[in-house]
Structure formats: C-alpha cells, structure tokens
Structures
1.
Amino acid sequence: MSPDPLDTVAGLLAGADSVALACHVGPDGDALGSMLGLGAALRGLGKDVVASWGGDPFEVPAAYSFLPALDLLVPPTDFPAAPPLLVTLDTGSPDRLGSLADRLASAACVVVVDHHASNTLYGTVNLVDATAAATVVLVEQLLERLGAQLTPDVAVALYTGLVTDTGSFKYSATTPAVHELAARLLATGIRHDLISRAIYDTAPFAYLGLLGGVAARAALEPAAVGGLGLVWSTVPAEAFAESGLGLADVEGVIDVVRTAREAEVAVVLKADPLEGGWKVSTRSKGAVDVGLVCTALGGGGHRFAAGYSSSRTADDVLAELRAALASAPHLPS
Ligand code: MN
C-alpha cells in the first residue's frame, strides 16, 4: 500500500527549513486562506516562509485585507528562483500559477495541496482530495499531523477558506465534518461574524449600481441545458470602468444570478481587464457537471462551480457554452 500523502507531506514540511507557498492567480478566500493559514502555522514552527501568486497586479482583494500573516506575501518577482520546497495550494493546474509556473521545474520538490476534481497532479507529491469542501480542510489535517498549534490567526485564515468555498455552509459539500472543523476553528475565539461581514456584507456603494446592470442584462433561456434552463448575464468592461470596481469585487455576482428558479445553470461573463476577453463563471444546482464542461473548454473547477477564460466575443462564448451544456451528461439526482 502506498503511504498516506498526508504523512508524506507532513514529513516534508517537518524536515524543511524554508518553504515557498504559492496559490492560484486571482486568489479567492480558499486560495489565500489555505496559503496564509499554512504559512502562519509553519512560521510558528520556526520555518522561513514566503507566499505569493503569479498575478499582476499583485494586490490582496479588499474583502480579504483582514487576513493574518499578510507580511508573508512577496511579489512574484521576489519569489525564490529555485525553492527547495514549493507547496501550491488550491491550484488545479500549472497554468493557474501564472508567472510562478516556471518554479515547478526549478523547485527541488513540489507539493500540491488541492481539492479540485480537475487537478492535473503536477506535483512531486500530490495531496489532492476532490471530496474535500475546501483546500483549508486538507491544510488543517496537515497541521494536525505536524502537531502545529491552531492559533486564532491560523483559524481566521482557515475559516475564511471554509466559509467561502462552502458558500457560507450552503453548498452540498458541507458535511458534518465541515461543521466539526468550523467548530474547532470557532473554539479558538475568532470573530466569525466580522469575517463574514467583511467578505459578504461589505462593498462599495458602486457595487449596487453594478448589480443593477447585471440584473437588467440577465437573460433566461428555458430550453437550454437540455430543457433544464440557463440564466446568464455579463459584467462588461464599461461596468468596471463606471463603478471603479475590479474582478475581485464581483465574485458574488454569480450568486445573485443563480437564484433564478427557472434555470439549472447560471453563467456570468466578466470582462478581463488584463488579458482582454472574458472570465466565465458557471454554477449548476446539481443536475449537470459544469466542472467537466469548463475543463473541456480549457478551464477547471468543481462539479457545481467552475470557470474558464476565453478571448472570443461574448456571443461566441455563449454559443460555444450553450452547445457544451446541451450535450453535458445529467448527473443522477
Ligand atoms: Mn478552493
């Protein structure tokens, strides 16, 4: 029997003096929470830690500015050229590392810690569990093996990943074990109410106007997805320009669009200010595997939440997606 990857990774971390952590570009709550939570705990164990992502601009989204251990972050240009131990978190494939992808070849050892079903297993050691609700779940298991203390700082970071990747404990991946982990984190005394308020219930006033535009542009296609229904909308470049908001500020837009009862699948096309083209976010309510659909279109994700990027026009993106969704196999209910 092959050794438990949790033991293998815990052993590698225990034996390392310095660890370089990286997460995916455009980091979300789980990417930042798993990276900074692990980073804070490893620093507590006396290790040299740096953390980064290969993004430009290199800026922590305002909603996550409360996270601990932000001083571990270094811009990708200052990231070690050949780290002895590189750990990637919440990152399903090398391209999601952006400008840090070249470190996969120069690092002496690469550990992949992730829960994406689409993970391409690109590490020397892969701690990948698609049944985990969030990458922070795997980080907590690692910390337990390491005998690392669950400090309030570590707990804030891990709770952030847990609450965001479960949609505030609403998604189907929210198991009893998820709530047990949340209980362990809350027991450290963290202010979960302030965390949720910062992430979900705080936005610049301009967000209301942007949401108004998204709602006005929303379209319902009842015959799409084999008759299960599709609802879609867009956040065009003008909406970003008018509101002064960025991609990281509109993560929650899809959660508004997906409320349409008549649609199994929700889609939001967000103009990509850096690359041009569109960032496409998709959600399914459980009957269709949008993870497979998005992986086939060059992206990745989970069964019910996934995305990809496209340089095509919005009309072409939608036509291609309609066709892919029409032929997507329906999951057993
Ligand atoms: Mn995640």
Note: The first strand starts at residue 18 and ends at 23.
2.
Amino acid sequence: MRILFICSEYEGLIKTGGLADACRGLASSLLAAGHQVSVILPRYGALYNVATEAETSVFVELGGQQYGCAVRSTKLHGVALHLVEHHDFFARERPYDDGQHGYADNPLRFAFFCKVAIAWAARQQAFDVLHGHDWQSAPAAFYLHQHQQHNQRLHSPHSLVGVPFVFTIHNGAYQQQCDAGWAPQLGLPIHQQAAQDGYYHELNFLQIALQYATKINTVSQGYRDELLSEPAANGLAGWYQQRQLDFSGILNGCDYQLWDPATDQSISANYNAGDLTGKATCKRQLQQQCQLTQSNGPLLVAVSRVTGQKGYDILIPALKHVLSHYPVQVVIVGSGEASYCQQLHQLTVVFPDKFRFIEGFNEQLAHQVEAAGDFFLMPSLFEPCGLNQLYSLRYGTLPLVRLTGGLKDTVVPWPNNMATGIGFAEPNTEALLEALRQALTLYQDQPAYKKIQQRAMSQSFSWSDASEQYLALYQQAVDAAAATL
Ligand code: ADP
Ligand code: GLC
C-alpha cells in the first residue's frame, strides 16, 4: 500500500511526546512489511538543518486568502519525508507553544498545514490511503472530503478519487477548540453542540475528523471504550458513539531498535534479563550524576510531560509522604506546567539526598532514567496508550501505573501471579500511596521482585502486530470509500 501520514511530530526530527514515537514506529514497521510510507509534516525552525533534495511549490486558498509555500522532500530511514515550509507559520523553535502558552494562530497554522497536505497529495497521484494523527491533522479529513465532492460535481478525474482518510486519536483531550469566528477564515464547518444552557457554536478540530474521516481509531482498546462516554471524551462522546462501528482500538508497539537495554547506546552499561549487572551500574551512575547518595533502597523514576494528565496532582502529595517516611529515592525528568514544576523543584530543596527534578526535554537522560530505576511512576489520570510503561517493562523497571486506558491493557498488577508491575484504580493520593507501599514491600522481597522483573522484560509489544492491524484498517477504509463512489 502507498500510505501518507499527515502528522506534526516524528521521532528523530521533532518530538514533544509519544506521538512522535508512535508515528515513527508505525512508519518503520509498515516499511519493513514492504509498504511505501510518506510523511508530511511542518518544517519547524528546528528542521531547517534537514537537507532536502526536491522542492514543490504549493498554492492554496483558505477563507478567500491565497497562500504559497514550498514542500521540500528527502528520505529518512527509507521513509519519504515532505516538509511544509512557510516561514511565518512554522519557523519557530517549538511546534505548538512558546513554552508557556499555545500560539494564538495555531488554528490557522494547522488548518494551512492540512490544506497544503491535501493539495500536495492530490498532485502526487501516489497514495492509496491518507492517515492523519491527532487534531493537528484533523482538518485534512474535511479538506479531502471537500476536494473529492468538488471534483465529483465537475465530473473531473483527480488523483484522490476513492482515497480514504484514516484518523488516529493519540490524545482525545487535545482537540483545538476555538471560537466559531475562525470558521470562515479556515474554510471549516462549525460544530453546533448542546450545552446545558442552550446551544453554543464553536469550531473543534478533533470533532471535524470524527465526522469526516472514513475510519477512526485510537491507540488502545481500553481508551477506545473510555471515549464512548463522558468525562473521558471531553464533550465528544456523542460523536464517538455515532461513529462506533468505524471506531477501533489498536495498541501502539514499542520500537525495540531504539528501546532495548541490551543495545541502547545512551546508557552507561548494557544489560539483559540474563545478566542485570549493567542495570546496577546504570543506577549508581544516575545517583552519582544527580548527586544522590549511593543508597541500595528503591529508586523510583518518571519521565513525562509535566501536565495534569500525568497525575501530578496526586503524585506530588504522595511523594512528600513516601520521601518523609521511607528509604526511597526519586528522580523525575520532565517539562511542562509551571505550577507543578515549582512544586517539584521545592521537593529537591526539602529532600536533597533523596529527590531530584531535572526540568527539560532530554532524550538521552530519558533512556538513562529508564535503565536506572527500580520502579517507573505513571499515575496518569488518563492514558490513551502510554509508551513509557512499555519501555520500562523492557528495561526491567517495574511500571507503577494507574489502571486506565492503555496502561490497564499492558501492565498486569501485582499480586496477580502473571504480574508485570504495580497498579491502582482510584485517581486519588490514598490509592497511589497504597500502590507505592506495595512497591516498597515487593522490593524488600528481592526474589519475588526479580521474578516479576524477569517477566516484565520478556513482554513484547511489537509494532509489527500493530502495523498488521493498521493494514487491515486501511483495507477496510479503502473498501468503505470505494462503496461510496
Ligand atoms: P505522552 O505521549 O502522553 O507524552 P507517552 O508515554 O506515550 O506519553 O510518550 C512519552 C514519550 O516522550 C516517551 O518517549 C518519553 O520518553 C518522552 N518524553 C516525555 N518527556 C520527556 C522529557 N522531558 N525528556 C525526554 N523525553 C521525554
Ligand atoms: C499521546 C498519549 C499517549 C500515547 C501517545 C502515542 O500523546 O498521551 O498515551 O502513548 O500519544 O500514541
């Protein structure tokens, strides 16, 4: 199949979270299975150093205004990469925000990106399926529909006849909602939604894709089921229900080429399930690097976007308690909301021998922390899939997770006799504290801990399983689109 990804992040180029890992992991796996994969994404400031070989000029009209840009192409690990270059919209270091606030022109930037993606794809005559990822690609579902309708009306043959749009929700909480006043400028339809006190009008990018995509999926079966009702659906449950028969869950894979402690070049010593000496070295190394005492007690770690989603409201009070009462150490790497970051910095001051918060986005450190920890903390309030728990399983760093979405689908909680980690259900500090106590108890019983560690390391969440399911979904989408011709 010839597949075009329309996405805003790609591992190795630009990344703020798991979206980047998932796009690259799936693309690589489809490529390995013999399919042609192309990826179109904005040329952010950070991508101006990517050398390109070919250039196409593209002109589009949005809400009566004409815009021009260049689409510059190259190859990256066998994937055809196409970068949409528009200086004013995209030549900024960070993709979506200035570090504090989302860019005010995000609706225009990403509507433009989608319009260009469709106009460019129409000229290529090269795709069997278009695959959009998250809200940043959502308007493309509508622009494709519009393009197809327009050409059908004119009886004009065009290269996107019968080409379906598959839409993957990596995170249903990010929707890009904006005032209906944007609609004419973006040439997008307005969503009329019942509110408690009557009707209000708004433009919601995610909703547009739920309405116009041929097929919809999200990144775990658990999260798919959660999205069918509120509050998980963040106001869009009706739309998920309406598309229920076209809506599936496909669990992400783990890219073991990049995340394997036996070969990882970023960690101080390699190791595998048969010989964990290297893991002990990684722990000592991280303690040294963070100027923590060389304690043999459990080291709890986390690497994440520092947002409400990741459970910081329940985690910070729980950490204060365990740091005060138990011989544990904690290292957190992350960046995000200022109020949480301040509280985490404060913990470093209060517990200088036991706690470190390293603020920032640091990929090498993320690997080192995965390798060094004894437990990986993911007390997420919701988690569409989660990749860090998959990395943690392979690195023998037992995930301690809230049993929600993809976390529930991938971690078997202790004391189940097939346990691979620790779990808790209720999203509150007490429940998390109970899970932390379980982790500390388990750690004291080293034979039991090691048995679970071995089982965790032998888990496999391959992208090839996921890509087979995506191929089946693409085929269903092609059939569904053909049936409407
Ligand atoms: P999400 O996509 O919601 O952020 P995932 O668990 O799916 O959560 O993926 C997060 C990805 O982003 C992982 O690869 C993780 O290592 C990486 N990551 C998150 N924060 C940081 C950070 N501060 N530094 C380096 N990598 C990070
Ligand atoms: C999102 C989700 C995360 C998921 C990732 C990749 O950012 O928050 O759970 O693993 O996308 O699909």
Note: Residues 277-460 form a domain with the Rossmann fold fold (CATH 3.40.50.2000).
3.
Amino acid sequence: MEHTERKKRIFSGIQPSGDLTLGSYMGAIKNWVALQDEYDCLYCIVDMHAITVRQVPADLRRRSLEQLAQYIACGLDPQKNIMFIQSHVPAHAELSWVLGCYTQFGELSRMTQFKQKSQQHADNITSGLFTYPVLMAADILLYQADLVPVGADQKQHVELCRDIAQRFNGIYGDVFTLPEPFIPKLGARVMSLAAPENKMSKSDPDGCVFLMDSPDDIRRKFKRAVTDCETAVKFDKENKPGVSNLLTIYSAATGKTIEEAEAEFAGQGYGVFKPAVGDAVIELLRPIREEAERLIKDKAYLQGIYAEGAERAAAVAHRTVRKVYKKIGFVER
Ligand code: TYM
C-alpha cells in the first residue's frame, strides 16, 4: 500500500447508537456501495463515537453486530472492503489523543453537531461529546483516506479534519493525506417524515424509516407523512418541504429524476403520491432486510469478517501512529 501506487482510499463510518435509517442509507451507504470497486475502502462501525451519549450495553453490542450484517446486506462486499469495529483497533484512541493537542477549543465549540447534541443531552455534556470530531479526524487520517462519503451533516467534521491535518503537516511535513468529503447530489439530507424541517434521525422514530422496518410499518409512516395543504406534487424546498423530501426519497429509491417523478404524479393528489413513495421504499429495502435477517443469524461468519477487518485495519493504522509518534518526538519503543 505505497502512496504512489495504491488505489485512492475511502474511510467512512456510522455510529451503532441506533438502528440504521433510510437517511444513512441514502446519505452514505448507497455511495459506499457505488464506490467500492474504484477505491480501497474501509467501512467502520464507530462504537467509540456511540458512547458519547449514554448507551445500554446489551443494545450497543447487538446493534454493532446487526450493523455489520446490514452493511453486507446493502451490497458491501466483505472480500473487497475492510469492515471492522472501531474499538478493535486501539490506534483510533491513540491518534485521537495526539490530534486533540493540535485542535483548538474554539474550533470544537463551533461544531453544529456539538451545539445540537449538547442541547439534547443537557444533563450529560461530556468532554467525549466535545472532542468527538477529533476522534473522527483520527479515524480518517489513520488510513490516509482521500475521500470520505458522508451525508451533508458531516461535512463540517470532515472540513475540521482537513484543517487539523493541514496544521499538523505544516509543522511536521507531509504526514497526512488531506481528505475530501463526498456528498451525494440526491439524498444528502433526508428529512423527517413527521417534521420535514428536521433531519431524519434515529431519535425521532415516527419520522424515521429504519432499514429493518416491516413493509407495514413503512407503508404506515409514508401514509402519515406530513405534506402541506395544497395538492400539487412539486419540488419546492422552501414552501413544500414535506413533498420535496418525498420526491427526493422517491427519486433516490427508483433512480428516476425529480422532473420524471413530478411528471408521473402530475394531476394526482397526495393520496396517490404518498403510498407510491412508500411502495418504492418497501421494494428498495425488502432485499436488504431479508439478507440482513439471514446474515445476523450467522454469528461465526460475522465474527470472521470483523476479526479479519480489525487485523487488516490495524496494520495500516499502526504505521500511521508510529510515523506520528516519531515526528512529534516520542521515543521509539
Ligand atoms: P451518523 O452515525 O450520525 O450517520 C451516519 C451517516 O449517515 C449520514 N446521515 C444522513 N444522510 C442523509 N440524510 C440523513 N437524514 C442522514 N442521517 C445520517 C451521515 O451524514 C453519515 O454519513 N460522525 C459520524 C460517524 C463517523 C464518521 C467517521 C463518518 C465517525 N467517524 C469517519 C465518516 C468518517 C456520524 O455521526 O454519522
């Protein structure tokens, strides 16, 4: 894996702090699948990030394994990609400490996600929640990733990661590759079905579609989706956030353009449109759910994948940590 000859590299991850959602699928995983042939990819289950808010241990453990099964069910090939669990590779914590010493308090204070989450969890604003983006920078920089496919809400964190890397390189020479965020044109910010002015998020189960939801649940959530008091199926984010979100979801699920979708539902009311979006999502998720249900039963298979993934990831990560330690003046063991 030399710098000059290697394929370009991707790193991305999702927190097992809740079940995977249609938002994380459309914002991130869909692109992971699309990019897996062209790039050398590492896809992580970031359990260390998940504990920045309190988790029930048994649920965290179960969801971490289910998430791996779901990654594979979404189409990520375990032969092509390194898939692993963050806490299995100690280098993440090691580099995170170092990078924290090159990150300003002010920079972290400006992070939108920190501001939001510290409001949501006002009784438990830990230093882990504050330094979360530093751990994320470590995730990315450890593997010298060129590209980080994420939804729009993570762009600010990837930009901070670049700033930290640039600062470090400015002092010590070319240590880190500068990563670029990769954000999809469609589905970068899937909104809540219940409150379309908010991002679809696992903490809002009514407005959120989970990858493992049954067809009945999905149908019900789309039938109840909040729209507006007009009737036209038109994309207008400002005035028709609900309908625009549904059009985006429909278009991402079917591969049709927004214009094609508008034409398809022209003259038909929301009573036809909303269930049709639900049906498209049911068909998109059906094979994923069925495959994930099958894989989750095969614990030995999953264990084989995450164990090998950790070993391969650790080899790359360890090299970066050694280089960093040397640069900053730590004595070699
Ligand atoms: P997380 O776990 O909140 O979300 C995982 C991924 O899904 C995207 N996403 C969405 N995209 C579109 N619409 C939505 N409603 C939506 N909800 C979530 C997120 O943008 C993200 O890409 N900090 C990260 C996890 C992380 C990471 C990393 C990512 C840790 N280390 C290193 C990339 C590289 C997070 O909290 O994502």
Note: The two ends are 24 Å apart (CA to CA).
4.
Amino acid sequence: MRKPIIAGNWKLNKTNPEAVELITQIRRDLTDVSKVDVVVCPVFLALADAHDVLLETNIGLGAQNLYWEDSGAFTGEVSAPMLKAAGAQYVIIGHSERRQYFGETDQTVNKKIKAALKYDLTPIVCVGEVLAERESGKAFEVIKTQCQGGFAGITAAEMGRLVIAYEPVWAIGTGKTATPAQAQEVHQFIRKWLADTYGQDLAQTVRIQYGGSVKPENAKELMGQADIDGFLVGGASLKADSFAAIIKNSLSAA
Ligand code: PGA
C-alpha cells in the first residue's frame, strides 16, 4: 500500500511571519493526521522559521527548487546541502512554472534530482503537458519524454525514493481540474512507464501525486482513483482551512 502524500506548494507567497502563522494554523488543524504524509513548501527564506514551527509535528518541510552544484560562483542560487541544513526533507523539481518562466529542461531537472538524492532530500518531480499538447493528442508522448529525460540514469533504488507529480499545465491555477478519469489515465500511463523501465514491483511503490486546481470539493473523487497517491496543491494550500479540508476529504477516500 502506498501512503498518500499531500504537499502544499506555496509558490511566491507568504513572508516569514505569514508563513509561521499559516503553519501554526495547519498544525492545529492536522495534529491527528497520520495516514497521509503532509508537506508544506514555503519560499527558501521561510524554510528555517518553518522548520522551527514544525518541530515535533508529523508535517514535512519542502523547498520549491534547488541548484545542482553544492556551492560556488552561482549568484542567487540555493543548493541541496543548504536546504538540508535549513531543515528541508523534500524539494519540488521541474514545476511547470520553472520550466515555463525560468528555462528549466528535462536535463536540468535530471541534474537537480541527482543533487537532491545525494543529500537525502526527497524530490517531488513534476511532469505535465500544456493545453496545445493535450488537444493535439500528444499528452502521453510529452509525459514519456519528460520521464525519460528527467529520470535518465536514476537507478531503481533511487526511483523508489522519489515522488512524481502529474500536473497538467492547463489545470494549474486555472480552476479547471482534470476529471478524475483524465488524471487516472495519465497516472496509469506513468506507472506503466515505471513498470517497463524499473519493473512492476518498483512501479507499485512509487507515489504519484496529481496537481492542478485541487480543492476540498474535488479531492475525494480524485483520491479515489487507483493510481492517484495524493496531491500537489497550489492556491488551496495558502489557507489552513482549505488545505486541511483537502487532507480530510482525501482520507475519506483512501
Ligand atoms: P494550483 O497549483 O493548485 O493553484 O492549480 C498547483 C501547482 O502548481 O502545484
């Protein structure tokens, strides 16, 4: 059985005091949740403060990005050992906004995954097609290319430590959620790719999140799909009540 994992991707939101306030509320709402791994991913600057508020809770902490070198002349970047030292356990890699606005490619995603694994951070690797690709029937092909490129050289043992997030780009921040059937179809495709590449046993252990306009109202039905193992939540993770409701509604389906 795969344990569901629900992560809040806060994107470029929340100052340090605001982050501490939100985590304090989330903590209060989710004290008794243990059947789902819950993770919050604030901006880099708020990680250390967030870590302090999360001590002695079962809520995990993630960053939203990293650079693949440990240190050096790379102005403005943050590395895996730095994230680790700040208390992060997870790191989102290759989010579509990083690909779209910051030029990330499957090759940079691949380097970032390797850097994260080296420091024992759990990568949450995002894949997903844009609307034109879906409409022209290329969604599966796009996902396959992203998996082949992003996971190049990743061993089965390493793959077992990863989380994959399927986020159709047309559903992110748009209010348009993929239907449970649309999402399940792609999740199943990713699991089949994992089985073909790493074997059936490994494929059955890898958690695949869905992301894109997840809300309390659609969480249960999405979570009820066989290959959906949790969510990467953007907008609805910025309020404690909606984030907690997503988790509680998911639990009723899991
Ligand atoms: P959304 O974002 O929930 O606001 O659509 C999801 C994401 O980008 O991870």
Note: The chain has a mean pLDDT of 96.
